[in-house]
Design a protein that fits this description.
Order of helices and strands of chain A: HHEHHHHHHEHHEEHEHEHEH
Mean pLDDT of chain A: 89
Distance between the termini of chain A: 23 Å
Oligomer: homodimer
Chain lengths: 340, 340
Amino acid sequence: MRSARLLPAFALAVVAALAAAAPAFAQLDPLPSWNDGSAKRAIVEFVQATTTPGSPHFVPPEARIAAFDQDGTLWVEHPLYTQVVYCLDRVPAVVKAKPELAKVQPFATVLSGNREAIAKLSMDSLLKILAATLTGMSVDAFDAEAKQWLASARDPRWKRPYTQLTYLPMREVLDLLRAAGYKTYIVTGGGQDFVRTYSEATYGIPPEQVVGTAGGTKFGYDEDGRPFLTKEPRLLLNDNDAGKPEGIHLMIGRRPVAAFGNSTGDRQMLEYTKAGSGARLSMLVLHDDATREYAYGPARGLPDTRVGTFPPALDDEAKKNGWVVISMKDDWRRIFAFEP
Amino acid sequence: MRSARLLPAFALAVVAALAAAAPAFAQLDPLPSWNDGSAKRAIVEFVQATTTPGSPHFVPPEARIAAFDQDGTLWVEHPLYTQVVYCLDRVPAVVKAKPELAKVQPFATVLSGNREAIAKLSMDSLLKILAATLTGMSVDAFDAEAKQWLASARDPRWKRPYTQLTYLPMREVLDLLRAAGYKTYIVTGGGQDFVRTYSEATYGIPPEQVVGTAGGTKFGYDEDGRPFLTKEPRLLLNDNDAGKPEGIHLMIGRRPVAAFGNSTGDRQMLEYTKAGSGARLSMLVLHDDATREYAYGPARGLPDTRVGTFPPALDDEAKKNGWVVISMKDDWRRIFAFEP
């Protein structure tokens, strides 16, 4: 993907060809997994408008920042966030290191393997599990543990590594934007350190372009006097809701020109992006494909009273602010790279 | 500077030519403001070792991260940090907006213009001034204010904008590293938002590659419903001492391969960088040129009992760990670009 950065002219030519709908260039479509429609058109027109010299909406290369939510926007988030699966899977190792936890809640419930009881754990219990499994070790040890888990864990439905459950159409958008000179960022409610362990291999997004929920670390020395950092259960950034634009300011320092999300947790990021001057693109992925992926809403994890829709408030705001909705069912020809 | 990124082969050729000391290529010296010596040699050899394919110390392009302290390492920090001058200069505007502060300390002292009294303000007083002048406004308003000040303020000794008081030899190092595929970061104890207002124009370092002392922001809406961020007096990262490697982990997520500093506040960053495997470069700028710049030490702002030296502990550690000391007096042929 690196070489793509050197080919903005090529990418622009492709976009121009696509916009002109010249049949001879059909094979150069930079978004082959997308059906023709308003969503695909919005992306192509945005790239054209912001990267064509002389365009009234031209954005200088250094200001080309695009922010992508991860869970539910770049890969599958249903029925559980991958990171939650990771934390639950890590509980036995944590209890092995601290046997006194075996009889303490919520660890006892997780160890029981009772899926129904685990699914009913409160947010407070979940936070205890996250703190115990994501902190207390060195950043290098965490990195190694997470990578090892990702290499062996399999999603129960597709029987594949979680890193294969990325949406091919969104990876095409990442590639198209990068070829057009955009820096692509993940801005996730998930753990920044966790996502950074696979973002480069999975999306071509380096660790320094991942903004996520982040805890503090503590600098210290090992017995040989070598410095290292320990992950602490001290929250620095809750990168959800208003935390997303706040996190963007902290970690990037510029307002994005394009943003992609799929839930109420992305609302403020989409608003903040769209409120900038000039051409702005805010898009929402709608999970309305129960056959090929999932159909759920209005809020993930709550009863699906309005399957395949957003909460009414978000739906209204999307219409009012000109956010473009991406229907997985209608807009995506293919969802996963592993599909035939 | 952007185009330089596309020329790693050229940069390597230049470095190779320099290392071979081929007189015909002398004009291609990428570090023309450096005198020949151990410091210059260390930089050139490091770039060669980490970017030559097949070298035992080759560093893949995505891992090429170089971290630079700013104050005293990239530009003049004496006798006052530029940001402190900015904050003192902002006090009248703050008091104009909040007249009740005029009789309150430390604001009354600053308004008095009594330089001796101002110089004696305690750290606690200084923090009050920083909080009052750096927070409470929107991030956009702060950005505009800081840029306006930087355009008009002049350093009292050189009568030039502060952004011209950068060290030319260090800018050459930035250029050389970038040409060799390194991402260059500022890792400063100064305010992240302040440094970001000029880093791109001054050093070619974009805002997203500035790690600094950072406060929280608060997302909200103005009367027209437009979202904006307000700077809050809530410290998220004190990017000094141990805070430097902690900030590097938070904002970059990778251990640097090269780091440059000049004071005890950079110690942990230099240790953390040097402790990585493979070729590592940790360098310390020594302020020992009272004629062309300043000579001071052991700790900035304290009596210069050991002018032009580091505190003994840092000096010992530099020797023990193989950090390379840069003598401004001996290693730098030119210090500023405006010198004849």
